[in-house]
Write a structure and sequence with these properties.
By secondary structure, the protein is an alpha/beta fold. The protein folds into 2 domains: 174 residues, Medium-chain alcohol dehydrogenases, catalytic domain (Quinone Oxidoreductase, Chain A, domain 1); 137 residues, 3-Layer(aba) Sandwich (Rossmann fold). 27% of the residues lie in helices and 22% in strands. It is built from 11 helices and 15 strands. The strands form 3 sheets. Strands 3, 4, 5, 6, 7, 14 and 15 form a 7-stranded mixed β-sheet that branches. The protein has a 6-stranded parallel β-sheet with strand order 10-9-8-11-12-13, sandwiched between helices. A two-stranded antiparallel sheet has the order 1-2. Helix 5 crosses helix 10. The chain is globular.
Length: 338
């Protein structure tokens, strides 16, 4: 089978490697789509991925083969690649380690993931794709689950106003999950025109271009001078965290969703007097995946504005795709089509 193997020095190589066979309690999934995640881009950009690993964790496909003892699946079942409930004792460091540090520990090591024709999974790991959810939408379940977790970790209440900084896929999902959770006013700040257009198509009440005027002043103008109740920082760029803390209203909350790999300057004297709260969020758990799929099924989350014909590229174009996404881009979401 084909797989994109990381070779180090920001280079992936599409190679023929043996197709795995499922052992007892395992399933083999034929990958259909694998969305390109910013975490993968950063892992390559900062040369943080182990040499020899096959990345790719936002994917969907079909069950292709069953190992001995597997009773919960049949060949041909459509599945999302992940989101299953982890059995006791199988939790990775992210859930189990009291001092978990993503930069130094990373996610649980899996040398073979879904930038490949097939992927081997434990029986408990995949989640069935419900009727009414397309394969294209299901491939984006994982980033949607991140937005679901961010929203559920927030203090958002019915009737609140929300600002989202950053209109990439997760920011656009946060816009929708915040609305589904009861926010009556949802605003978004994003410098890229195509992403601002997608935000408006998804129901944003107003969209800010941060290159046109002060972001904080614009946020205050949209909220009657008080500031949003909740701010989701889905950008992690330059001063966005400080801007988030500066714009949120008194006793409001900032949720840091973006993974920032570089120093972000903050000036606490500008916002600490309003006793604002900072909440971090990281990844997702099984319930978040199921909620994400339910939101897609019921139409409260729409992936269509995130995807176009240009979003889908073959595995052989993965290096060029990563290089393009490592720079400022007009793309919303890129997906490897197997």
């Amino acid at each position: 089978m084909r797989a994109a193997v990381y070779k180090g020095n920001q280079r992936l190589s599409v190679e023929d490697i043996p197709t795995p066979s499922p052992g007892p309690g395992q399933v083999l999934v034929q990958v259909k789509y694998c969305a390109v995640c910013g975490t993968d881009i950063h892992s390559v950009l900062y040369d943080a991925a182990p040499v020899g690993v096959v990345m790719g964790h936002e994917f969907c496909g079909t069950i292709a083969a069953l190992g001995d003892g597997v009773t919960s699946w049949t060949v041909g079942d459509r599945v999302v690649g992940g989101g299953g409930t982890v059995p006791p004792g199988k939790e990775g460091a992210q859930l189990a380690h009291p001092r978990y540090d993503y930069r130094t520990m990373g996610f649980a090591s899996k040398p073979m993931r879904a930038y490949a024709d097939y992927i081997l999974m434990e029986e408990w790991d995949p989640v069935p794709i419900p009727e009414g959810v397309s394969d294209e939408a299901a491939a984006l379940c994982e980033p949607c689950a991140i937005a679901v977790r961010a929203t559920r970790r927030s203090d958002l209440k019915l009737g609140d106003s929300v600002m989202v900084l950053g209109g990439g896929p997760i920011g656009l999902f946060c816009l929708q999950t915040a609305r589904a959770a009861g926010a009556t006013s949802v605003f978004l700040s994003e410098p890229t025109p195509v992403r601002r257009e997608a935000a408006l198509a998804l129901g944003a009440d107003a969209v800010i271009d941060p290159n046109q005027g002060d972001v904080v002043e614009q946020a205050l103008a949209l909220t009657g001078g008080l500031g949003p109740d909740v701010v989701f920082d889905c950008a992690g760029w330059q001063r966005t965290l400080d801007q988030s803390l500066s714009m949120v209203r008194r006793d409001g909350q900032v949720v840091l969703v973006a993974i920032a790999w570089e120093d972000i300057p903050v000036l606490p004297i500008d916002w600490m007097g309003r006793e604002v709260r900072l909440q971090t969020t990281f990844g997702s758990v099984a319930d978040d995946w199921r909620v994400a799929l339910d939101l897609m099924k019921t139409g409260r989350v729409d992936v269509e504005p995130l995807l176009s014909d240009d979003s889908f590229v073959p595995l052989e174009s993965i290096n060029e795709t990563f290089e393009a996404l490592a720079k400022p881009t007009t793309q919303l979401q890129m997906v490897i089509k197997m």
